[in-house]
Amino acid sequence: MQKEILIITNYFPPERGAAANRIYSLAEAMGDADFRVTVVCPLPNYPTGKVFSEYSGKISSVEAVSFGKIKRLWIWPSNSANKFVRLLSMVSFSFSLILFFIFSKTPKKVFIQYSPVFVGFTAVCLGRLFSKKIILNVSDLWPLAGLEMGVLKKGTYYSLLQKMEKFCYKNADLIIGQSEEILQHISQNIKKPTFLYRNVPNFRVPLIPEHKPSSEIKIVYAGLLGVAQGIFEICQHISFPENVSLHIYGAGPEAGKIKNLQKKNIHFYGEVDREELHKELQNYDIAFIPLMKRIYGSVPSKIFEYTRLGLPVLYYAGGEGEDIIKNNLLGWVVPVNNYDALQRFINTISREKIGEFPKEKIQKNSASTFNFHKQFKDFIVLIESN
Question: What is the pLDDT along the chain (386 residues), one digit of tens a residue?
Fold first, then answer.
């Protein structure tokens, strides 16, 4: 009899980004491991806050795929900066989830992507109500991350989110965390089986193309263009010398301001699909990973993706990621939010300095240390024993 699992997530392709890619890779791998997978997610709307045109006007959608099926449910989408408007959007998907559980036959095992909190909380409540085995995947420590980013303040609403967070942890049968800090945070008060599951990509390691030596040093950023990443603010504070340039790919709330930025040696290309992006990234010398504030538990997934392509990393995001970069010799670490230190690095970067981290060595270190298939095999053994 074929094994079955239900995956509940707020993000899934054709949406782009680390969260969608992570869950898709997991669903695909589970299909290869002889699981029949049902993915339940909202109608695609991230990051624009509008349902994608090919799904516009639909209440729901069911798609047959190689690993099983995707059930896309109604959501009132929004990417508003207003937290109460965003809350309404999350509640709308939670309502759709309730209807789905009432009227659908669902597998015994349920994998829940925790964050957003309300969606995770609703899914865990439904899992308990319907006597499911709950695997909780924690990729962000909400509401703590929101407090550190300045989008939440301590008070009644924050306390409510904390209670919902603890409820999710207490009622999970197995907790998956993408960083050591996340698992430490959870284990402080709650004793549950845990498993470290890094957001390691699952794509074939590409050959590193040969390029003619150039005097220009090209730094690239590819990803979400939001306040937390701080690309617009960094561009305002940092100047690039004649031989150094910054190349930006992505979409998000600050994309318009970056596009209109008139500053020497800064180039903006907008959003491209992942396959094309991987080809483009191989034309650059250094990958830039910034976060404006050190967020406890956060490890940018770009570390694993960039280095698998052979790019040394300029890391400006703090936290556990600093140790990953240093311990695995994957690039340079600059203290987060220290513009003077970042400017000094930009001013002094040279071909000789880049030569300290050859692309072939970066790729080899990354591919051997962060192995998707080994990690996934250990994960499967664990969930089959629970």
Answer: 679 999 999 999 999 888 898 999 999 999 999 999 999 999 999 888 999 999 999 999 999 999 999 999 999 999 887 778 888 999 999 999 999 999 999 999 999 999 889 999 999 999 999 999 999 999 989 998 888 877 789 999 999 999 999 999 999 999 999 999 999 999 987 889 999 999 999 888 888 888 777 889 999 999 989 888 999 999 999 999 999 999 999 988 899 999 998 899 999 999 998 889 999 999 999 999 999 877 889 899 999 999 999 999 999 999 999 999 999 999 999 999 899 999 999 999 999 999 999 999 999 999 999 999 999 999 999 998 86
Same domain? For 187 and 318 the reply is no
**Contacts of the segment 350-354: beta carbons below 8 A, 24+ positions apart:** 350/217, 351/213, 351/217, 354/217, 354/285, 354/286, 354/312
Contacts 24+ apart (CB under 8 A), 366-369: 366/304, 366/307, 366/308, 366/328, 366/330, 367/205, 367/308, 369/328
Distance CA 334, CA 343 (A): 10
In contact, 30 and 69? CB cutoff 8 Å = no
Residues 238 and 254: their CA atoms lie apart, in Å, by 17
Q: Do 289 and 250 belong together in one domain?
A: yes
Q: Cis (ω within 30 of 0) for the bond into 253?
A: no
281 shares a domain with 182: no
- Residue 140: give its domain's CATH number: 3.40.50.2000
* pTM beyond 0.85: yes
Q: Are residues 7 and 150 in the same domain?
A: yes
- Distance of CA 16 to CAs 45, 208, 312, Å? 10, 25, 23
Burial class (CB in 10 A: 0-12, 13-18, 19+), 317: buried
Tokens of 263: 């500053």
CB 59 within 8 A of CB 91: no
212 domain residue, yes or no: no
Q: Are residues 119 and 179 in the same domain?
A: yes
Write out the residue range of the structural domain in which residue 140 sits: 3-200+371-385
